[in-house]
Design brief:
Length: 97
């Protein structure tokens, strides 16, 4: 009986050790990803999609030129929604939240 109890406790301790280690590494990775995204945005490598707010690369191939401005999109769906808003006469196009 005692053997089983000790085995269960040892298994639980190992589980908690590895679970905490995994969660810590995951949080560190998320922090690095956020810092990397912020760096790319400030360096001008990424821009915000004016329709959905997602960040996309400036080399992305889905774009629309409106006068001097170039808008970049994450998908053709966002681009089509943007064009529809543009055709309806909304010249000031704030990002939709």
């Amino acid at each position: 009986m005692w053997k089983w109890l000790l085995l269960i406790l040892a298994g639980y301790a190992l589980y908690r050790f590895f679970a905490n280690d995994f969660l810590k590494k995951r949080k560190e990775h998320e922090a690095e990803s956020a810092a990397d995204l912020e760096r790319k945005v400030s360096a001008g490598e990424m821009v915000k999609d004016p329709e959905c707010g997602a960040y996309v690369s400036v080399e992305g191939n889905i774009s629309v030129r409106d006068g001097d401005r170039v808008y970049r999109f994450c998908s053709y769906e966002c681009r089509d929604k943007f064009l529809q808003r543009l055709e309806e006469g909304e010249r000031e196009l704030p990002p939709r939240e």
